Recover the amino acids of this structure.
């Protein structure tokens, strides 16, 4: 009887630990997603502030661009590296859905926040040219991998 009580007590203890671990993991995922969303908003705002400071138009948000930027981040995370793989296909799909004539993108990874990512892009001639280019719409996707490293894709079009 005592052995059975010890076993039941041990079983309840293990179940409690297992459920706590799952909750902690779920909370960590929610926090990472919320942080990524904050970084997206911050980067979108920083890019627009920079453009306006130069006398350029503020870019409008595009849900279509966001969808493709998000998919590309998932792809880069699966490959564990940044790339412009399949850009022509993405650009064609965005053009056909929005009637645009020109699409561009910036990608990055491992920056800790929106300011760092923006500075990294501004330190690159080609990325800076894209940010300051003749575009009307954009969207930024930021996703975290399993190690909580951030991946960034910003798509621009006109």
């Amino acid at each position: 009887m005592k052995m059975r009580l010890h076993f039941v007590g041990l079983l309840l203890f293990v179940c409690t630990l297992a459920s706590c671990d799952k909750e902690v993991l779920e909370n960590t995922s929610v926090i990472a997603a919320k942080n990524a969303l904050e970084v997206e908003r911050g980067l979108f705002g920083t890019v627009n502030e920079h453009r306006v400071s130069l006398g350029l138009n503020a870019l409008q948000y595009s849900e279509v661009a966001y969808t493709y930027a998000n998919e590309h981040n998932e792809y880069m995370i699966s490959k564990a590296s940044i790339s412009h793989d399949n850009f022509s296909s993405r650009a064609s799909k965005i053009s056909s859905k929005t009637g645009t004539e020109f699409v561009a993108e910036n990608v990055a990874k491992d920056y800790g926040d929106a300011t760092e990512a923006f500075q990294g892009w501004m330190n690159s001639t080609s990325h800076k040219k894209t940010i300051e280019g003749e575009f009307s719409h954009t969207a930024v996707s930021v996703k975290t991998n399993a190690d909580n490293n951030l991946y960034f894709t910003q798509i621009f079009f006109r």
